[in-house]
Amino acid sequence: MGLHIVLYQPEIPANTGNIARTCLATDTTLHLIHPLGFEITDKQLKRAGLDYWHQVRVKEYYDIKELFSKYPEGIFYFVEDYGDQSYTEVNYPAHEKEVFFIFGQETNGLPESLLKNNEEGCIRIPMGPKVRSLNLSNSAAIVLYEALRQQNFPQMK
User: Fold this and answer.
1) CA distances to 11, 29, 72, 120 from 68, in Å
2) How confident is the model at residue 155 (pLDDT cuts 50, 70, 90)?
3) How confident is the model over 110-137, as pLDDT tens digits?
4) CATH of the domain at 27
5) Are the CB atoms for 7 and 19 separated by under 8 Å?
6) How far apart are CA 2 and CA 51, in angstroms?
């Protein structure tokens, strides 16, 4: 049981590399939903993840349905500006279930159909009106560390 970061068709290798580094630091699995906007061997990806990439638990999927079928008991949160609840208003279960935070493409976010079919799992990061969104790697870290805080940072010093 544990926490998972899911990147739905990520486009920018540096963001994925930064998120991979955060996943390693937090013992979190990184899931990548294809198609990717880069090659997994991309130099920018490895540079952002530094020399840690080979240690990160990374799983790849042909599409999002494959992820859902592999984890039918998982709890899925869809991080987007769509949704009524803030990421801080959710109680993330500690160790009872697999908890997945799904983030969309840097340019298009998550598909509207996916969000509409999962409204109860949509969470958002509050922000002011001057920007459309936060950087993907920052958003992943914000949400992940809130879940870890609620769980009292298990197995972390």
Assistant:
1) 21, 15, 6, 16
2) confident
3) 999 999 999 999 999 999 989 888 999 9
4) 3.40.1280.10
5) yes
6) 24
